[in-house]
From TrEMBL:
EC number: 1.8.1.8
Thioredoxin domain ranges (all copies): 32-187, 200-360
PROSITE patterns per UniProt: THIOREDOXIN_2, ZF_DAG_PE_2
Family of this protein: Belongs to the nucleoredoxin family.
Any GO MF annotation of the entry: metal ion binding
Organism: Durio zibethinus (Durian)
Stretches assigned to the Phorbol-ester/DAG-type domain: 372-422
Taxonomic placement: Eukaryota, Viridiplantae, Streptophyta, Embryophyta, Tracheophyta
Protein name: protein-disulfide reductase
Entry keyword set: Metal-binding, NAD, Oxidoreductase, Repeat, Zinc
PANTHER family assigned to the protein according to its UniProt record, in alphabetical order: NUCLEOREDOXIN 2-RELATED (PTHR13871:SF7), THIOREDOXIN (PTHR13871)
Length: 427
């Protein structure tokens, strides 16, 4: 087996380390982590000649990402694609960066096929001991995981454990992953949010319009200035999205209707599509009464990053002044329907008070048509934290009717009384 081959250099490395040559040790920070007693190299990238190797000593002086991942796990494959783009950008601008893949694949074939996609280095699959030691040292609890090591940081003072998050959030701009760099990025981000306007959010150098109800109609972004705007991140392939959209449409229409009677106030929604192709975008957007960013527009990606959108559907509310009001638009719609408008803290506080007030007149316990046990009224204080309503499948928090026996939980407004007391039997 190739991996077991030793050349002269590897022998000398092992000797210097065991001889306690301090000068050598101080320059071989990565050897103690990545080498084994009979291996001083890592496997090369896909572009290199088959089975080519890179000396671990060549990594000294570089920023190193130790990358724990596995081919069989979709979140790893998703991250892998993003990481490849970032890595290639960093390589092309000459950054002193390298990644070492530590595989959790099931077998050598899976490892090899995953490695095919990777332009960086790998610990050989057969070296279980090194892989285990790395997992233990960095206390890896889940994958994908990217641990970033700084050169000449022998005490691991500057090591970062949240590389995956940093790559998703900042891309190649996070390099060289030092605390100073990250503070600078956070500062920049804060300033961007402080100077945010609807124009800055939704336009780019190539485009100053968004799509109207028919995709051929262009609406200037300027027309949104002074309005409350919901950015609706959604996609037709996403089941919870398809379920939420009709509800949002009906609430949108009710809000618009109410605002007709008030002057100087308006509400609009802009669909930010995560659809996979133009035709699903067209058919999904065709069901919506509001505006949209064009399919595949680069602003879609930057908005998702900017607002740190972790999952869809997601509704982010921008106030008439262009600043973010809330990222919890979806929950507020679910909780309060059209009354949630304009989604401000003051409005939410008012609504919460109303709910508290209304709960006082609710029965302490009741039967629900969908469940055979009696349900008890609970609030946050009495064990009712956040929940998913078993009747409408939407989130809820605060007051709820809960089966203390099996955890079945519904919104107070989703309580449907039993048709008749007799039907409790046989459920
Ligand atoms: Zn419900
Ligand atoms: Zn029950």
């Amino acid at each position: 087996m190739k991996e077991m081959n030793l050349d002269d250099n590897s022998n000398s490395l092992v000797q210097t380390v065991t001889n306690g040559d301090s000068e050598k040790i101080s320059t071989s920070r990565f050897s103690s982590l990545l080498a084994s007693k009979d291996r001083d190299y890592l496997l090369c990238s896909r572009e290199a000649e088959a089975d080519q190797q890179v000396k671990i000593s060549d990594l000294e002086g570089k920023v190193i990402g130790i990358y724990f991942s596995a081919n069989w796990y979709p979140p790893c494959r998703n991250f892998n694609q993003v990481m490849i783009d970032v890595y290639e950008q960093l390589k092309s601008n000459g950054s002193n960066f390298e990644i070492v893949f530590v595989s959790s694949d099931e077998d050598l074939d899976a490892f090899n096929s995953y490695r095919e996609s990777m332009p960086w280095l790998s610990v050989p699959f057969s070296d279980l001991e090194t892989k285990k030691a790395l997992n233990r040292k960095f206390e890896v609890e889940g994958i994908p995981c990217l641990v970033i090591l700084q050169p000449d940081d022998n005490k691991d003072r500057a090591t970062l454990y949240d590389g995956v998050e940093l790559i998703y959030r900042y891309g190649f701009e996070a390099f060289p992953f030092t605390k100073e760099k990250l503070e600078e990025l956070q500062r920049e981000e804060r300033m961007k949010h402080e100077s945010q306007t609807v124009n800055k959010l939704l336009t780019n150098p190539e485009r100053d319009y968004i799509l109207g109800q028919t995709t051929t109609k262009e609406v200037p972004v300027d027309s949104l200035i002074g309005k409350t705007v919901g950015l609706y991140f959604s996609a037709q392939w996403c089941f919870p999205c398809v379920k939420f959209t009709p509800k949002l449409i009906s609430i949108y229409q009710k809000i618009k209707q109410t605002l007709k009677e008030k002057s100087g106030e308006d509400f609009e929604i802009v669909f930010v599509s995560n659809d996979r192709d133009q035709s699903s975008f067209d058919s999904y957007f065709g069901t919506m009464p509001w505006l949209a960013l064009p399919f595949g527009d680069p602003t879609i990606r930057s908005l998702a990053k900017y607002f740190d959108v972790q999952g869809i559907p997601c509704l982010i509310i921008i106030g008439p002044d262009g600043k973010t009001v809330t990222k919890q638009g979806r929950s507020l719609i679910n909780l309060y329907q059209e009354n949630a408008y304009p989604f401000t803290d003051a409005k939410v506080e008012l609504l919460e008070k109303e709910v508290e007030e209304a709960a006082k007149s609710l029965p302490r316990s009741e039967y629900h048509a969908g469940h055979r046990h009696e349900l008890t009224l609970v609030s946050e204080g009495t064990g009712g934290g956040p929940f998913i309503c078993c009747d409408c499948d939407e989130q809820g928090f605060g007051w709820a009717y809960q089966c203390l026996e099996c955890g079945y939980e519904v919104h107070p407004r989703c309580m449907r009384a039993l048709p008749s007391a007799g039907s409790i039997e046989g459920r």
